[in-house]
Amino acid sequence: MHTTQGTGPAPDGGYAAARLRLLQDAAPAGPARRAALARLTDDWLGALLTGAAAETGVPGAALVAVGGYGRGELSPRSDLDLLLLHDGRAAAGALAALADRLWYPVWDLGLDLDHAVRTPAEARKVGRADLKVQLGLLDARHLAGDPVLTAALRTTAYADWRESAPTRLPELHDLCRERAGRQGELQYLLEPDLKEARGGLRDATALRAVAASWLADAPRGGLETARARLLDTRDALHLVTGRATDRLALQEQDQVAHVLGMLDADVLLRQTYESARTISYATDVTWREVARVLRARSCRPVLRGLLPGRGAGRLPLAGGVVEHDGEAVLARSARPERDPVLVLRAAAAAARAGLPLAMHAIRRCGLAMAAHPLPVPWPAEAREQLVTLLGAGPHTVPVWESLEAEGIVTRLLPDWERVRCRPQRNPVHTWTVDRHLVETAVRAAALTRRVHRPDLLLIAALLHDIGKGWPGDHAVAGETIARDVAARLGLDARDATVIATLVRHHLLLTETATRRDLDDPATVAAVAEAVGTTGTLELLHALTEADALATGPAAWSTWRAGLVADLADRVAAHLAGRSRPARAVAGPTPEQERLAVVARRTGGPVLALHRLTVHAADLRTLDPAGAGPVLLLRWRVAAEYGALPQADRLRADLVRALDGSLDIPARLAERERAYARHRRAALPAPPPTVTVARGGSRAATVIEVRAQDAHGLLHRIGRALEAARVAVRSAHISTLGANAVDAFYVTDTAGAPLTAERAAAVAREVQGALE
């Protein structure tokens, strides 16, 4: 602890107490509290400078706030960005003494401090050399001392910024893009950095700098509100954690929501995403305008006219839509008030051409739509333009986001409002619900060549998770919504039924392929009954792949794709009246026979290892050459991380497990304790559920387990099934992120399915073992 000298307030004096009272008081909050904290800090630092200047005899000095503090915004744990200006007349020793009397009281209070001591000329020189310093000087605000020094600094800072803008703005843009690539997009992250992620507070500050250059300005609609909400969230985060953090971690979101008076963390995240989306959209529009202005300045007028698509000429894209200066804009003759399909035609044309849709074009169409909305049901052209937009591939995304930012999507599809910016807390998901739907359409666009109705595939992709905005099973809720939306779009009853079926069963193929026995005729028959026709099956297969690819890397793999394709082939054969022989009943392969003979000869198990996360398991009893039965277990696994373990060691441990010399529960407990010491704190996992799948099979009873994935989970389930004295015919293991969904085909000791009462009892025993 440093000893504070001077006549200013002591560290434990009035400022510290007043600051604490202000932060503990529920009112004021938000911008009012930030401003009050800044004023309180201004007064304290001003008194410090007055006293210190009198003691040290330093003339011609000024204390200046820069950065966030310069903007008059202080969060509870914000650092103080301070610049001590002087006119160069004071001796170095006196300046150092003056600085000490300013900085040490700040440090003694435990506040973070970013400080510098410079003349205005030195500050100007450093700003010209360092972009971040120059940006901070744009927010310079006088606190105390000689105001002439501060005024001179501000004047030169703005003059230098505007003079250097043609070279500095591209540098700033590169910094923003590099940061976005490193931190991700705030509007999609489960644990976003409110400051550094794309669409966060840094981007909002960058937009202020662009405006200060006088070259371009950001669209103002909602921008300041979005920025204030992010600041409010950061304030609450500082109060909850007691730390200067910008990362909104999962374990703190409910508390932050409570401080802000919100219902829960989902409401908090949705508002955060909406704010980030507003800032991101403004950022995109602004940097496009900067590029346009700089491009115009870089070419002589005559040359600009010769550059294709970049000069005064307008290239037609569609009826009422042209390309101008790198954007899709409305033609001069366009009349959106007389052409309600124009907004969709413009969006489709922009996406197809790989161009952004100009903001003023969207806003003009939006104003026209308010007075002259698109008729319901939609005319055929409107539906066709929507399909064209969805089928444009990756170029669909920025155009759709522009429409969303201007409120067009919810005007066209009112049900979209419930999924807009809705978070998905399953870590398998990369996107919010609405972005996932658009991403699924993008993925589906690459699969349209293999289906007979690409339009229905694309519309189903856009709607498949539309029920996530409603309570209950989102597939069930989505079926009803999708049917209504299909009617709104002008589809006939038959097509609307296909769309509704696809939405209702969009998870059917994946869940069945990974959790059910495909060799059981009941499995194929159940899927065939749900799908109904080969045409719907074809669409469902493509939708399944698009949905999984749009979910995230953990949701799709060659293994999963193979299972789904196998199931689709079997169902197609069933619907066509053809039969396919089951794989498992065709008899043992030569390799299986060899393994059984080796096992019989050695008296021990043989492990054929290929990969180690368990994907599937099945059992078979073999009797090679009549020498006696051998139980063959096949496991499909993948390494959790690193290289695969040695087969000899695995084989040895398996022998010890079977003869009882290996204490598996103890080993698992030891391993779990080791992992727990290094595991990051996480939200409590939901309790496991164990159910009996009714009608899942005619040859066995299907016990389904849903639980948090954990080391030894299959061991605990297996021990419970063993204790229940049932035989496991096959196991189908599926792990998505932190969640395991495992299905076990079990029979009694005679090989028959369990009675309903016995099955329920077994499910309860497994549930108890997992709890």
UniProtKB/TrEMBL annotation:
Cited InterPro entries: ACT-like_dom_sf, ACT_dom, HD/PDEase_dom, HD_domain, NT_sf, PII_UdlTrfase/GS_AdlTrfase, UTase/UR
Cofactor(s) needed: Mg(2+)
Activity regulation details: Uridylyltransferase (UTase) activity is inhibited by glutamine, while glutamine activates uridylyl-removing (UR) activity.
Presence of keyword Nucleotidyltransferase: yes
A molecular function (GO) term: [protein-PII] uridylyltransferase activity
Pfam family for this entry, one: ACT
Domain ACT: 702-771
Domain HD: 433-556
EC number: 2.7.7.59, 3.1.4.-
Alphabetic keyword roster: Hydrolase, Magnesium, Multifunctional enzyme, Nucleotidyltransferase, Repeat, Transferase
Catalyzed reaction equations: [protein-PII]-L-tyrosine + UTP = [protein-PII]-uridylyl-L-tyrosine + diphosphate; [protein-PII]-uridylyl-L-tyrosine + H2O = [protein-PII]-L-tyrosine + UMP + H(+)
SUPFAM superfamilies: ACT-like (SSF55021), HD-domain/PDEase-like (SSF109604), Nucleotidyltransferase (SSF81301), Nucleotidyltransferase substrate binding subunit/domain (SSF81593)
Region annotated Uridylyltransferase, chain positions: 1-316
One GO process term, biological-process aspect: regulation of nitrogen utilization
Signal sequence coordinates: none
Function: Modifies, by uridylylation and deuridylylation, the PII regulatory proteins (GlnB and homologs), in response to the nitrogen status of the cell that GlnD senses through the glutamine level. Under low glutamine levels, catalyzes the conversion of the PII proteins and UTP to PII-UMP and PPi, while under higher glutamine levels, GlnD hydrolyzes PII-UMP to PII and UMP (deuridylylation). Thus, controls uridylylation state and activity of the PII proteins, and plays an important role in the regulation of nitrogen metabolism.
Family, similarity comment: Belongs to the GlnD family.
Listed name of the protein: Bifunctional uridylyltransferase/uridylyl-removing enzyme
Species for this entry: Streptomyces kasugaensis
Gene: glnD
